[in-house]
Amino acid sequence: MNKLFTTFAFCISILSAEQDSLGADCLIIKDENSIICKYSNVRKSYDRDIKIFWINPKENISREKEVIVPAGHGSVYDFRYIQARMKGLWTFKVIDKEKEYSTSFEIK
Fold first, then answer.
1. pLDDT of 64-95, one tens digit each?
2. What is the pTM of this model?
3. Which region, left, alpha or beta, applies to residue 59 given φ > 0 means left and ψ of -120 to 50 means alpha?
4. Distance between alpha carbon 30 and the CA centroid of its chain, in Å?
């Protein structure tokens, strides 16, 4: 019984961790002059088109990109340099079908 409970708890924790990693997230690596943003979602058995937007602090689209997420894949990365980017609060937004996912980060 204890082994069954432990297995069940382990499965629930993995599913919970996967749910927490869905969506958009960005990482600023100053030493490498880099901003790396990632979009993660559940893997699908078919290709799907997504749109990526980088929105600057003045709320203008700095970059718009269409990406195909191949069947069996669950994440997409996009990369920008920090240098020459406007200072302030940026938004990284992804549209996957009709759902929007976004995250914000600040360039100081």
1. 999 999 999 999 999 999 998 999 999 999 99
2. 0.79
3. left
4. 19
